[in-house]
């Protein structure tokens, strides 16, 4: 019975190591800093996020930034005419 629980914990640990292996520690801190400085997230909010939840918010934020940049570029093109 105890061996089963230990193996289960090891599997979860391996899963999260694998799931987060694409994100380096430097990238993690840079992303946290940018989200705190430019988008008003608190460090507590970021630290309390589940890893996949953080990935979703980062992806949504990237999409919003791309759309805003396109909107500003379009507005600048109209002003030059």
Count of structural domains? 1
Helix content: over 70%
What is the residue-averaged pLDDT? 83
Low-confidence stretches: none
User: What is the overall silhouette?
Assistant: elongated
Radius of gyration: 19 Å
Strand content: under 5%
Order of helices and strands: HHHH
Multimeric status of the protein: single chain
Number of strands: 0
What class would the helix/strand composition place it in? mainly alpha
Compute the separation of the termini in Å.
74 Å
What profile does the largest beta sheet have?
Answer: none
Task: Explain this structure.
- The protein has helices at 2-19, 25-39, 43-47, 51-80.
- With 81 residues, it is an all-alpha fold.
- The N and C termini lie far apart (74 Å).
List the main descriptive attributes of the protein structure presented here.
81 residues; mainly alpha; 4 helices; 84% helix
Brief overview:
The chain has helices at residues 2-19, 25-39, 43-47, 51-80. By secondary structure, the protein is mostly helical. It starts with a helix and ends with a helix.
SSE arrangement:
Elements: H1 2-19, H2 25-39, H3 43-47, H4 51-80
């Amino acid at each position: 019975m105890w061996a089963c629980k230990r193996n289960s914990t090891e599997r979860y640990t391996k899963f999260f190591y694998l799931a987060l292996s694409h994100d380096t520690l430097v990238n993690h801190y840079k992303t946290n800093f940018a989200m705190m400085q430019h988008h008003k997230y608190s460090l507590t909010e970021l630290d309390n996020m589940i890893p996949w939840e953080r990935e979703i918010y980062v992806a949504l934020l990237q999409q919003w930034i791309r759309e805003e940049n396109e909107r500003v570029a379009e507005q600048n093109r109209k002003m030059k005419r």
